[in-house]
């Protein structure tokens, strides 16, 4: 509580109190503290914030004013914040405040201070000049490999939604180029190589997806455009984008428009890139698998539980997820948001989600860095009569707060059927991944194969950098309680997965893997 009602006197008192803190308080801590404080008199608090921002002489005091303006500021504060943003030490606190008051201005400031400003120079110059045609042209010309946050900031700073609204007045070529760029930016925002998908920090995502879906028919049926449309369908069906406030029927309508384009005769034949490199051939195979999944696979939209295996476009590779949706909402980004859902090899193939009378704790997701760093999401699965119960959640709390996750109950018959369906679905697999599954199944069914060597099975899958390489991970104990990992690469020789797996299992049974694993 501040003693003086005068904002200037109160600001001086704030300076004194903050200067007396030892050690000094960081901006993020100040922001969390201010956000959690009750405000009895918003007018006084707003006046204090403006004095601190406009006349403050210390970093903590100015950051306190910025944090208050995040909750209480208005359009008249934006010019002052833009000026403060010229000070490099204040860029991040100012951007956070601008995001609440004028999101495009916050995005513009962020891009100006980006590590690679040369990339955005032409776009920033067009924005400064107020030339909408040049903004569109510079936006389309940006590289395709932007970082997820940069992609979001580009969409916000350029006014992507307004640009997409101008498509009816553009030529077919110009409109198609803008639609493709919008699809690419949305795709980049959904990358799994981040703690929290950037798409959740983009409030205009529903409108951007709707505009992309409306314009999708302008795109020629190239491999890149197949990948963009299929990726959008994946995200609007099972991804974090579902968590936005869509309103009634809007997301479903966007999905319907996208799938209608994919069903057109000219889109049914996937471009044959047989002469391309291995990466291109993988992408063609992914498009064919994913088309079958999103267009032909039966879905039960009203189901309480749905499990969908998600394989991202190999052009921007990521881990394969076993996405869990409860009442249509993806559970992991909804309740965890620090990393992707566990893989099918973790959640489905070992039967981890099967419900028995004996309660079993299951790790549904791990933080992108590591569980030991930022935690993981656990739930206890048990059968209770004709129901399956998920309870006993373990999850790190959000910054500055607590998180209590609800007990979930499912009809046992429907739950068992969905888990069995997901375990048996191999439509998403490619040969090397299926080889890994067959090896894993064989080792689980015959534990004696490895026991004779003092080695135990860890996992089997594919290499991240080369999805056509099957990897088997084995563990064995060494001195003083330490555990060593062996990685064995099963070579791709063009034979069917069943034959490759049989050869691998036979070798594991006949030769100590420590002699050939690395």
Radius of gyration: 27 Å
How widely separated are the two ends? 63 Å
Described by strand count, sense and barrel closure, the largest sheet is: 4 strands, antiparallel
Strand content range: 5-15%
What strand line-up does the widest sheet have? Answer: 4-5-6-7
What integer is the average pLDDT?
Answer: 91
Percent helix: 40-55%
Number of strands: 10
Low-pLDDT residue spans? none
Class by SSE composition: alpha+beta
Total count of helical runs of at least 4 residues:
24
Shape: globular
Please explain how this structure is put together.
- This protein is α+β, with helices and mostly antiparallel strands.
- Helix content is 50%, strand content 13%.
- It contains 24 helices and ten strands.
- It has helices at residues 7-19, 27-35, 42-55, 59-72, 78-84, 91-101, 103-112, 117-129, 132-140, 148-158, 160-165, 172-189, 205-215, 223-238, 250-262, 265-268, 278-296, 331-335, 344-347, 371-374, 412-424, 431-445, 448-451, 497-510, and strands at residues 305-310, 321-326, 329-330, 360-366, 376-384, 387-394, 408-411, 456-462, 470-477, 483-490.
- Helix 22 (431-445) packs across helix 24 (497-510).
- 36% of the residues are buried.
How would you sum up this structure in a few lines?
The protein is 50% helix and 13% strand.
Question: What's the topology here?
Answer:
Layout: H1 7-19, H2 27-35, H3 42-55, H4 59-72, H5 78-84, H6 91-101, H7 103-112, H8 117-129, H9 132-140, H10 148-158, H11 160-165, H12 172-189, H13 205-215, H14 223-238, H15 250-262, H16 265-268, H17 278-296, E1 305-310, E2 321-326, E3 329-330, H18 331-335, H19 344-347, E4 360-366, H20 371-374, E5 376-384, E6 387-394, E7 408-411, H21 412-424, H22 431-445, H23 448-451, E8 456-462, E9 470-477, E10 483-490, H24 497-510
Antiparallel strand pairs: 1-2, 2-3, 4-5, 5-6, 6-7, 8-9, 9-10
